[in-house]
Design goal:
The protein is α+β, with helices and mostly antiparallel strands. It has one domain. It is built from six helices and nine strands. Strands 1, 2, 3, 4, 5, 6, 7, 8 and 9 form a nine-stranded mixed beta sheet that branches.
């Protein structure tokens, strides 16, 4: 059935469009691909909901049940070329507000991972919904494919986004159990942090 792109909340789209228009109008973008673009040249594409996973839950290998929705992410294209990403985040667990624009290496890595996701979803009869998993404590982002009609998320697939930690191969498709086991191993290698260090651990 192919890759299913979910509809983002209206307030996320509104916050994104308003903020991008203001930034473009002021010439406030730092990313080279956006800096010279006129507002009408910039399009927000491929919306995907972002889920965060804490270090403790990653250690336990409890990926699917423990991941928490935190916002929405979009790829920003200028004249059909993806040059950056932009995110909105939930405010008090409800209203979506603009968060930031990113033009770092995860942008190109996402494009590559999405190409792999489209191949997998195209061969799957179920239709797979696109999500993004973020594990800040180990600097891992991964495309997350799930069956929205399935009884559970147990059969989810994960495709790490480059640059990825060395235990993962970027743009390779991992079954949920294998992905969780590798992530757990990686997370357990992170030393315990004291209460004054907030590096994504809880």
């Amino acid at each position: 059935m192919g890759l299913l792109i979910p509809d983002p909340p209206k307030d996320s789209l509104a916050a994104l469009r308003d903020s991008l228009s203001v930034l473009a109008g002021r010439g406030s973008f730092s990313a080279g691909g956006l800096r010279e673009a006129r507002p009408e040249q910039i399009s927000a594409t491929i919306p995907h909901q972002v889920f965060n996973l804490t270090l403790n839950d990653a250690r336990l290998g409890d990926v699917v049940k423990a991941a928490r929705p935190v916002g929405w992410r979009y790829l920003l294209a200028v004249d059909d070329r993806v040059v950056a990403s932009a995110e909105t985040q939930s405010l008090d667990g409800e209203r979506q507000v603009f968060s930031h624009v990113n033009a770092g290496p995860f942008v190109g890595g996402t494009v590559e991972a999405l190409a792999a996701a489209e191949r997998v979803a195209g061969a799957d009869k179920r239709g797979l919904e696109l999500r993004l998993l973020n594990v800040p404590a180990v600097y891992l982002m991964s495309v997350w494919l799930r069956d929205p009609q399935g009884p559970s998320d147990a059969e989810s697939l994960f495709i790490p986004v480059a640059p990825a930690p060395s235990v993962f191969k970027p743009s390779q498709v991992y079954e949920g159990e294998e992905f969780a086991a590798l992530l757990s191993e990686l997370a357990r290698a992170i030393p315990e942090l004291d209460s004054d260090n907030a590096r994504g651990g809880v």
